[in-house]
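Bump. Still looking for DsbA family protein C-alpha cells.
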Amino acid sequence: MTDTQVREKTPVDFWFDPLCPWAWMTSRWMVEVEKVRDVEVRWHVMSLAVLNENKLDELPETYRELLGPKGWAPVRVVIAAQQKHGEEVTGKLYTALGTRIHNDEKGPTREVIAEALAEVGLPAELLAYADSDEYDEVLRASHNDGIDRVGQEVGTPVISVPGAEGDVAFFGPVVTPTPRGDAAARLWDGTLLVASTPGFYEIKRTRTKGPSFE
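Sorry for the wait, here they are.
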C-alpha cells in the first residue's frame, strides 16, 4: 500500500441506550474491535423506554420505574447533543455517560449527565433536554431504524454491518467481561460468520453472571 492509498474502513452501525449495562459491555468490545479490524463504529441512539412503552404492565415495578423520566433523560440529552453539535459527539458522550452510570455505579442521574456533558466539552444547557420532547421524533426515528433491521423481539444493542447481499444486522453479542485484543477480533469474526449465514437466527445460553466492568 502506497502513502496515497488508504484502506477504507467498514462502517459498523451500533444502536445503544445508555441505561443498558449489557449494551455498554458490547460497546466497549466494539471499541476494542476498532483497534484490531478495519472497522469504524457509527453510534446511534435507541430507547428501552420506547421499546417497552406498550408492555409496561408486564414488567416488574423496578424496571417500569427505570423506564420513566429517569430512563428518558439520558437518551434525550444524547439525541439533542447529536442534533445540535453533530454526530461525532454521540460516541464520546456515550462513553462519558456509560463510564459513570456503569463502571462508577452512579446510575443515570442528572448529576451524571451534567458531568458527562462537561467532560466532552458540551454546553451544560443541554441538560434541559432531559425533560423535553423536542427531539423525541428524531429519537424514535433512530430507534426504529435500528430495531426494524432485527425485529421487535430484541433489545439493545443492535449492530448492522454491510454484507455481500445487503446489511447484516443482529442483537448483541451479550458478553462479559469485555474481550480485548485477539479475543475481541475472534469474537468479531465469528459473530459476522454466523450472522451472515442465511436463515441463521439465534445462539443462546443461560447467563450465569452479571456484567463485569473490568
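The chain has eight helices and four strands.

Edit: fixed formatting.
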